[in-house]
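Hi team,

Filling in the usual template for the complex we talked about on Friday. All components are listed, including any nucleic acid strands or ligand strings, so the model treats them as one assembly.

SUBMITTER: L.P.
PURPOSE: interface mapping
COMPONENTS: two
RESIDUES: 748
SEQUENCES:
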Amino acid sequence: MGTIVEQIQGIPLNHYLIFCSVIFAIGVIGVLIRRNVIIIMMSIELMLNSVNLLLAAFSAYHGDASGQVFVFFIMALAAAEVAVGLAIVIMVYRNTKSIDIDSLNKLRW
Amino acid sequence: MIELIWLIPLIPLLGFVVNGLGRNYLPKKLIAIIGCGAVLTSFIISIALFSEVYQDRLAGGDGQIFKNYFDWFTVGNLNVSFSFLIDPLSSIMLLIVTGIGFLIHLYSVSYMSHDDGFGKFFAYLNLFIFFMLLLVLGSNYLIMFIGWEGVGLCSYLLIGFWYKNGSFASAAKKAFVMNRIGDLGFLLAVFFILDTFGSLEFSTVFSQATGMTSGDSTLLLITILLFIGASGKSAQIPLFTWLPDAMAGPTPVSALIHAATMVTAGIYMIARSNILFTLSPITMQLIAVIGIATALVAAFIAITQNDIKKVLAYSTVSQLGYMFLGLGVGAFTGAFFHVITHAFFKALLFLGAGSVIHAMSNEQDMRNMGGLKKALPITYVTMLIGTIAIAGIPPLSGFFSKDEILAHAFFANPVLWGLGLLAAFFTAFYMFRLLYLTFFGKFRGTEAQQSHLHESPWQMTVPLIILAILAIGGGLLNVPEALHGNHWLASFLQPVFADSQAIATPFHLSHETEYILMAVSALAAIAMAIFAYRKYVSNNEIPKADGEETGALYNLSYKKLYIDELYDKVIVQPLNAASRFLYKVVDKSLIDGLVNGIGSFFVFSGKGIRQLQSGYVTFYIFMMVLGVIAIMLYGLLYS
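RESULT (copied from the run log):
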């Protein structure tokens, strides 16, 4: 453990922050501009994982393990979310013969 | 008999219920028997009651019988009981209402026999008698007020009895609305009485009022409001125009309600409250002035009317004016005396006119009558008696009652007497004009009418004869001292007016003055009778047809002084305009605009905002991101 922590601390915290922000932003933009549901879900994963990385980094810098515990929770949650999400995608595909998010526009005024 | 008081109003009410429910099922004979019998029973009980009161008066008592039936309601300190008061005043009124009421019921049996609404008519008449008896018998202002409103309702129903005729229906409405104006005055007066005296019982109110000073401002207010109520019901200026229009109803109704009983309710009420009025001299002067003005105006209009019932209607208004003049100058007995005699001869005249109309196949225009003397001998003789009585020619009843009022008016103010005498001139003229145009000269109607002429059946002539006898002898009730009479009515009514007489200046005229006054008015009446005879019988003059050119004064009288037109211009049309304004501008534009505006505001804003619900998930997420960014920025900048 000690060595890993030292390795992580070998990189300045700012770099983690900028890196994670960039990945998060890529995730957000992916969700916003892509119309394929699968890609959107992947983008969401990207956002979640950027947060995970940041939590791990903070945890290491603070010497507090609870941040890493959070990461595990989030991963479990993400797995469940993907399971549900992919099931929804399959149902969407069966009903609309498409996985374009814009085909789900029936719920409107 | 005292135990039976409650039956007096109850029996006509029962008659109303039975006839009202069975109006379409019961045979006409049975309806007539129930209708007449109910009133006759009340009349018999009233006679017994009257004799009881009379015995008590002879024995030196005050003739008062007070009967409390139940406490109607108690609110706080106010306790209103349902109770009846019989005293000399109400016992005489009972006799008039039930006695003349019975005669008119009997008359109606024949008069209305061809009418489809026979049962309805008798039901209404009985209901009217019930309410009138309630008005007369009530021992407090509230019971009186119930009767007061009830007779107004019956008057409305009976004026509009032939409601299919639009103008009759609107005459009924006019009567009702004008009465409502007066009723509001009465109602306000009742509230003020309650506020001032803490009770509505006559005995409490009057005994408390006796202790008040003359000219008290509260009393002034109360009496003015009471007088407004009386002027609505008794057709005084400015609320008198409904009475001539009320002739739209069947003739027995005109005789019963609009001549003998209901319209005298105002006089009865003021005579009942005499002490309140005696203590407010300003109101008394107002009553005298309004009374004489009404007497003059109505008599002036009556001179040129051609409808036989219209003449009698204006004559009634004019005679009611006399009664108010009597009240105003403090001649309570005289005014009430005139109520009695007027009930006799005016009911007689109306029923006589009804007999004429019946014989003439519903013709009412006197220009198409004439020469009916031979065809209708009983009607002619009885109407002649009625005419002499109302004109004030001695020794018939009208002379005594009118003269008593005029003598008191002379004592109060000779100007009032002079104007009253002028009205007496008019009265004698228009009544003899009516008589001559109807019964003298040549027949001016159509062939069909002439062949149909007939004397009325006994149900109609018997009431005429009885009323004629009463109209001749009614004056004996109160022969003045100057003619060696004993003032029977005055001494009988003495307890009712005792408190007022103690306060008012005692009436005193020397016998010589009284003789002169009597001679002047009797001569005036006779002179006008002769004048009318020369004009309409010797010279065979017939009133001009509607389109013909007439003098300005004649036209003014013929057009009823344009009072209806004036009211139309001053009150009705502005009210209509105001209603139209409220409807079109305030209601349609303002209120509807406000309500619709709120509605359309939400419709339009909803239309705008719903654009956000595009259905595109991307858009929602974009908005969410924007929101998150906004919150973050806020947190960064303002924390």
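MY TAKE: The interface with chain A takes residues 610-611, 613-618, 621-622, 625 of chain B (CB under 8 Å). The longest strand of chain B covers residues 65-75.

Thanks, L.
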